[in-house]
Amino acid sequence: MIAIRWVLSLIFIIQMYVVMAVFAVLFFPFAMASRRAALWVCHLYARWVILTARILCGIRTEVRGTAPVGEVIIAAKHQSFFDILVIFASVPRPRFVMKRELIWTPFLGQYALRIGCIPVDRGKRGAALAKMKADVEKGRAEPGQLVIYPQGTRVAPGVSMPYKVGTGLLYQQLGQPCVPTATNIGLFWPKRGILRRPGVAVVEFLPTIAPGLSLSAFMKKLEAEVETASDRLMVEAGFSGSRDESA
Q1: Three-state SS at 12
Q2: What are the φ and ψ backbone dihedral angles of 76, each rounded to 5 degrees?
Q3: Neighbour tally for 154: CB within 10 Å
Q4: Whose CB among 6, 80, 158, 222 lies 3.0–4.6 Å from 241's, allowing a Cys bridge?
C-alpha cells in the first residue's frame, strides 16, 4: 500500500510541475498584460493542484472560518507548499511576502511580481524589514489580501519556531485587520519528501484581530491563536507528536 501511495505521489508531483510550466508559458502574455489575468491563471492552477491531490493522493481539503475578501493581513501557519495554494484558492486577490530568491525563478517570479507579491531578503534582518515595509507601502495601490508567514519559513508539525516581528510591524504600519490562519496540512503534504498521505487537510481562518493593539500584545495574541488552533487541527487529524519533536 505504501509503495502504491509513493508511486501515485510521484506521479502527482510530476504532473503538478508539468502543468505549472504549461500554464505559465501558455498564459504568460495575458498575465503580464493584466494583474486580473495573472490572478485568474494562479487561481486556476491552485484549484488544479487541489483537485489532483484529492484524486491521486487522497488529500481532501477543507477551508474553515470566513475567507477574507477585503483589505486585510493574513498571518498564516506555513507547513508546506500546499497551504500556499489552498489559501490562494480561497481568497480573491492574495499577494504574498516571499523570499527574494524566488523572483529569479523563470515565469514563477514574473507571475509573483505581477500579482503584487513582496520579495524579502531574509539574510539582512534590519534592512529587510525596512525594505519590506517600503515595498508594502508602495503596493497599497493594488488592493488585496497580504499573506505573510510569521515564522518566516515552513515549519513541520511538532517543531517549535519563534514568530518574527515583521508581521507586527506591518500590522501597525497598515492599520488593517489581521486574520490569523491555522493549518494541519504538513501532516499530509510534508515539508520534505515525495510521499503524500491521504486525509483531510484543513486551512482555518480564525477570528479577525482588529487594528490598534500594541506590537507586543498583537504578537502574543497572534502566536497563541495560530499555534493553539493548528495544534487542535493536528490532534483532530490524529497527530500525537510533541511540539518539540524534530521534523
Answers
A1: helix
A2: -115, 150
A3: 20
A4: 158
CB 130 within 8 A of CB 124: no
Whole-prediction pTM value?
Answer: 0.90
Fold designation for 2-236: Glycerol-3-phosphate (1)-acyltransferase (3.40.1130)
Instruction: Name the pairing type of β-strands 145-148 and 59-64.
Output: unpaired
Contact (CB, 8 A) for 149 and 76: yes
Task: Decide: helix, strand or coil at residue 119.
Answer: strand
As a 3-state breakdown, the chain gives helix, strand, coil percent values, each rounded to 5, of: 50, 15, 35
Helix (H, G, I), strand (E, B) or coil at 189: coil
The pLDDT confidence band at residue 242, using thresholds 50, 70 and 90, is low
Query: Is pLDDT at 134 greater than 80 in this prediction?
Result: no
DSSP assignment, residue 217?
H
Domain ranges of the chain: 2-236
